[in-house]
Amino acid sequence: MGPDIKRRRLLPWAVVGLWVVVIAVAAMFAGKLGDVQRDEAVDYLPASADSTHVEKVRQALPGGETTDLIVVYHRDGGLTAADRTTAEEQLARVAAEQKLTAPPKGIPSEDGTLLMYPIASAVPDEPGIDKEAVQIAFVEDVRALTTEGGGSGAGGGGSGLDIEVAGSGAVQSDMEAVFESIDGTLMMATVLVVAVLLIITYRSPFLWIVPLFVVGAAAVSSMAVVYGLVQAFDTVVSSQSSAIMTVLVFGAGTDYALLLVARYREELRRVPQPYDAMRIALRGCGPAVLASSGTVAAGLLCLMAADLNSSSGMGPIAAIGVVCALIAMLTLLPAILVLLGRRVFWPLIPVHGSEGKQRRSFFAAMGTSAARRPVAVLATGLVVLGALALGVLNLPGALKQEDGFIDKPESVVGMARLADAFPEQSAQPISIMAPDGRADAALDTARSVSGVAEAEQGRSGGGWTEITVYAKDAPESAGETATIERLRSTLDDETYVGGPSAQQIDLADTNARDRLYVIPLVVIAVLLILIALLRSLVAPLMLVFAVVVVWGASMGIGGLVFGPLLGFTGMDPGLALLSFVFLVALGVDYGIFLMHRMREEALKGAEPEAAALTALRTTGGVIASAGVVLAATFGVLAGLPLVMLVEMGLLVAVGVLLDTFLVRTYLVTSASVLLGRKVWWPGALSKPPTAPRSGGGQGGQGGRSGPGGQDGPGDREREPVGTGA
Known about the structure:
By secondary structure, the chain is an alpha+beta fold. It has helices spanning 3-30, 33-36, 50-60, 81-97, 131-147, 168-202, 209-233, 239-268, 274-301, 309-340, 362-372, 374-389, 410-421, 439-448, 478-490, 500-534, 538-561, 575-603, 608-635, 643-675, and strands spanning 66-74, 107-108, 114-122, 162-166, 430-435, 452-461, 464-471, 496-498.
């Protein structure tokens, strides 16, 4: 047995064996990722904002960080004496069983329908203490203690007395509960969606299992790597970034699998041995897959320049997911396919020397129509996208914290009751941190600021004094926002203003700043990668312009859907930036697949129009399949119970579909036909050939150009790539 034959037999087994070890080791750590996820306020807030400083100082004050709650008792017709007795007894039990920072004191509303008890408990600042778990346990204990003997509300039993545990700590606890339910739901839904789409694409009872297993291995590996980063560098992983990473691994990984399997199927018809067919397929589509994954990773890493902690932390985590998906699809997937041989394609086995089933190519027809009237197609497409982009004028304002849930939890219902019962004063505090020497002056200044209903001095320690302020206007209203801005402008520069509402203001302001810096950075990074891959300036500019237009149209569709159809009252401040990064990086993927194939045809001597149509015909199917899979995986987010994830999922899914079926098939093709050889300017392909290329021919009918695995004779008669035939 020759060394070449031994290598062919041993290499795939060695790769599979290595991955078995990797998966076994990774599985031990992947499950621990949920234990190190952090969703505290400082993990999402801007790094340099006032509210971030306030939150950090609060945690360092005597008693440490506190969990602030408001127990709400409400009866429509007015509270009875028995209701007040119930409230006093329940809060007495809470005080007896929980370590509160101060005794509970009831505050009645003027109309007598509501009684609220603000309470707080210090979170121990000790090594090894899971602060989030302590906070959640406190909220659950208070809810359990106030359920006993309650009425018909959240803690009710049918007497007409409504009881809710509200306040910032309860809202955070409810948010944590939602995130905990998301992990398992998201993974199961994503696996199911990808499995169904792969079965439809491949029309095989076996083939779909292979890429699904491989992408699952990539997901486990990525979670283990991220867990290692947390342990080694204390990297912050939020539930949001973990969810996005899962979607990206499944979406991008399946896309790469579709492209590789489609090219492998082609080569099996021309090459007798699966090992050789896979080697040629990897050489043919490997550069495009590497470039596309590199583009996505580079775009995501640009998020590290963001000042918003949640955005900057998401960049490397999501990039790790894409890289793990790439490695798995270029190593484990080829090895398994080679070992299984042609039979994995049953019942549509690609027999050596056979031709694909003859059928009219849908994408060939679309390309022909685009080439027949390129100016009309291009103009119409741009007008449609521009008209859709006008919908951004109807986008809702910033999303309030209590409006972030699809189904309003107990804490949000309670906060709404408080706003109705105390219209003269906000029930949500504004926190001020002042140096000890200036605390008294800061308190006097805060009380004199227009819009402040009440201000009182609280804890002191470490050189800081806490001042709690209540505004006259409702939380996160325009009036309260103006009050916070007046406090910040009136108080000295060394005094910080924070709290839940101030955090939302800082989130919106920082996202606006991040968009100005990160968006150009993403465009430049993607453009440089495209220039290096395509050896051109015009083609990369065309592709980047196309994905930016798609992003604008997607945002416009969001404006037409979020409020009018879905009833969302706000939009997450980070949505514009994150959707831009995802749509540009992922959208350019399909442009790379298309233009890389077009460049192959041009290198073989095809005329510009023929090269564009051949590229669309041969890659249109796989791009469509990949686009549907990616859109569907992001669409899974739209079924989750948080508004910010629903909005993200819808925007990216719609953008990917627009990019796949309108921009790539019609606009890029028609623009390429119009530009002709200029699309490759200033590269060598932009110049007319001085002599016929050896072995070449019109329309790319030449033979193989070497080990790169380009198509040879007969490619025009083969099935469209990615159709599953």
